[in-house]
């Protein structure tokens, strides 16, 4: 342990690292309940997604430990899973495309391979440094709002309306009421700094749902998509389900190159900034940055993220990325990769508890989605709305277009295009880095393809 993780050099012990790993796991294990719920909207079986989510998280955590020796855990990313399901798969399904998740998984695979190449040549750091801060922050905040509206819709709190576009759902429904109670529970637990507040909020809401079902308030109607909140241990349900192994569709790529390129780029762009921002934030809290504020062994950490994404795609889940919840483990004393290894092992253990996680209803995960959305929205505090107009409107456009067009890709596309056009019009064309020109050109082509469809 000492030779592999350099525990003494980092001022920690095996016990501290393992407790830190447990803390991180409790803080992020909600993804095992949330991810199957979200990806089921893409036409995927929840049980298979659960297996893929747990296994890919375990492998990615191990890679982080071996490649970078950092106490950072990884799993299928929030926001990226929503983009996978609602911005890629749902529109394709509505257009009549069969099994659109296969196309989305192919895009995730390509994204991961590109990330590996970029990591090998240290291009990822360059890309991150050349995109304006306001755009990065606006994208993060916009994803937070997008996740929030997905959560609210899942519990029937927000519903569609022909007259006002959106409206308030039925306030007396158990899903509506219990989701709000769950959010309050998470808020209280977070206030008192209870470890795993999001997980406990999900579990508390779930228990209240079982009570509601037992007394007849919450009524099961499988035909309407309302399922029992009680887990079933009948038969071999405790055995992990088979994942969507290598379930790719490359035929779509040959006939829809531009559309596929935009999907890949959107995955790439969001994951790029989410990962780097998370790594820097967690490292800063753990005192892992050097005297110049840089992250040593950043290449290894980014490679772990890239490998995790490729593995996740091969198993059948959305993009794997670093989790900001790793900061809870760092605050508990985690300083090395042993923390990440511990978290990864716990994800494997959770594989055999799938009946429990898969029985958690959508309204019980709504509080988690809304609260994570809140945490991501806090990035707006760092945005500068008083200086360069391109930075201001570009970042704001990215922020608002995501929830109001129900698409993360739209937010990124219009945010970047707005920024480039304003830079040109204000005589600051020299501020536009080649990577932004390439991004803008790609999105212009995307708009052209949308216009002629």
Account of the 3D structure:
The N and C termini lie far apart (about 60 Å). The strands form two sheets. The chain has a two-stranded antiparallel ribbon with strand order 1-4. The chain has 20 helices and four strands. The chain has helices at about 1-5, 15-30, 30-40, 45-70, 80-95, 100-120, 125-130, 135-155, 175-190, 195-215, 250-255, 255-285, 300-315, 325-330, 335-350, 355-360, 360-375, 390-405, 410-425, 435-450, and strands spanning about 75, 160, 165-170, 320. By secondary structure, it is mainly alpha-helical. Helix 4 runs antiparallel to helix 15 (about 335-350) and helix 18 packs antiparallel against helix 19. InterPro entries: Azg-like, Azg-like_bact_archaea, NCS2.
Chart the SSEs and their pairings.
Elements lengths: L1 H4 L8 H15 L2 H9 L6 H23 L5 E3 L3 H15 L5 H21 L2 H8 L2 H22 L3 E4 L3 E4 L5 H18 L5 H18 L36 H5 L1 H29 L12 H18 L4 E3 L3 H6 L5 H14 L3 H5 L3 H16 L11 H17 L2 H18 L8 H19 L1
Antiparallel strand pairs: 1-4, 2-3
Helix pairs in contact: 2-15, 3-4, 4-13, 4-15, 5-6, 5-12, 6-12, 6-13, 8-17, 8-18, 8-19, 9-10, 9-17, 10-17, 12-19, 12-20, 18-19, 19-20
